[in-house]
Design a protein that fits this description.
mainly alpha, 1 helix, rod-shaped
């Protein structure tokens, strides 16, 4: 009878020990899950910030590109105008020389 009780007590102690181990593992897993969730949230926020900066940079580059193309267009127009002016002046000089 005492042997039975001792065996049952030993079995109960082992069960309690296993239960404590399982509970410790559960707490560790929950803590790991919480840490992982926090890291995922931080990474999502970081990704959102970086995407925002990338989009802002793209918009800036596009704006500068449009401005540069506009300046190039104006320079070409000025070049054509100056070429026409030079041609007119050459013609005037030629006319003056011929009429003198």
């Amino acid at each position: 009878m005492y042997t039975d009780i001792n065996q049952q007590l030993d079995a109960a102690r082992q069960d309690v020990f296993r239960l404590h181990k399982i509970e410790a593992m559960r707490k560790e897993l929950l803590q790991g899950r919480d840490e992982l969730e926090a890291k995922v949230v931080k990474l999502l926020i970081f990704d959102w910030i970086m995407q925002s900066k990338i989009n802002n940079s793209r918009e800036s580059v596009s704006r500068v590109q449009r401005e540069v193309l506009g300046v190039i267009r104006k320079l070409r127009e000025m070049e054509v105008h100056e070429a026409e002016t030079v041609a007119k002046l050459k013609q005037q000089i030629k006319n003056l020389v011929m009429n003198s």
